[in-house]
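#random but structural
TW: two for the price of one
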Amino acid sequence: MKNNVIAGLEDREIKYLGETRRGKDHDKRIADEEGVKVPEGYEIYRDLGYLGHNSGDGAVVHQPKKKPRGKPLSDQDKAHNRAISSIRVVIEHVNSGIKRCRCVKDIFRNYVEDFDDLVMEIACGLHNLRTAIRIKNY
């Protein structure tokens, strides 16, 4: 199972949670079908799974460069990819914060209609609560 998640870099809060899909579905196809558009002026850091997806007018998209077939990646492109990866690690930490609820990352054996969506919503809500408490205590 997989979901599209949009999170803020500064507050590490989950801003958007897409519906739960099969793990076989491609990230770009899911994003295209959900039709999420990011407002003008926002910056998006995403991986190569979304290559070719249109995120909305005016949004600045940062995505790593893909290595050309049979050729090495230039030093400038490697530095660009490292800079993006150092920012995207925050989002990977958000993903791991969601997966603290083991029922999200383990095999889900409940077949009740839309129960997997509810479990994911609860896991994201708990992540946002932990984040809010952590920020409040600093």
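TW: number two ↓
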Amino acid sequence: MSKVRVATAQYPVDFLKGWDHYVDKITSWVKEAAGHDAQLAVFPEYASMELVSLFAEEVRQDLPFQMSEMQRLLDDYLALHRELARQYGMYVVGGSFPVRLPDGSYRNRAYVFSPQGRVDYQEKILMTRFESELWLISYGDQLKVFETPFGAFGINICYDSEFPLLARRQVEAGANLIVAPSCTDSAYGYHRVRIGCQARALENQCYVAHAVLVGEASWSIAIDENCGRAAVYTPVDVGFYEDGIASIGEWNAAQWVYADVDLARSEEVRVRGEVLNFRDWDNQSVAASAEIERVHLE
């Protein structure tokens, strides 16, 4: 089996009334995706940060404080998503969570939950200036590929999608789908990630599922503004889509975006495509490693 229906979220930030409100919200989102026969549901980067609304004002206005307090909710967050994946028989990529390590540093983790109860994660590899300088989140150091009955996928969290070697390693290890959960506070940021996602689909001749956080949260100093459009991107070749877009959401709307993909077709286009970007990757290294000749035209 290589066919899978992917649901990628335009997930809205809310001020939560309590933990039960969060449980009801996440449950309704997963239930809706399952009702549309999705087998893989992807939430965006830092979607978990709406949990900060459960804390007092002094916590919400102190970034180090709120990240520390978030750790008290991690076990419940994991248990909730694990149960929902099991209950609805879906693979779920949860909204990423800033996790404190034993040495006191933080990593931005996107957890993956399987219908069988397995839980693992991909850490963000590269940090934006905001994350490294203000959030003090450390760089991840390991790439993973997640094996499923429908094929393998890798995760590039937001900024990671803008660097080609990360997805390349995962695709070379067997991933035919790259999942890109993102959190961007401006159209500039959104388009950087979108362009990165489409570039990764082009050069690797694979699928990319992009999830986004949307909405305003004036109560938060971390995720106060969020915008974008979730989408599923494809190789740009015969048999796919002329613009490489399988589906894309409405700007800033709260919604799931669905696409039916066949990961085996990614393998086929790498052999029979009009162009063979995946095969020709290494050919660029010859010219790229040669000495540059400076040509003066004046």
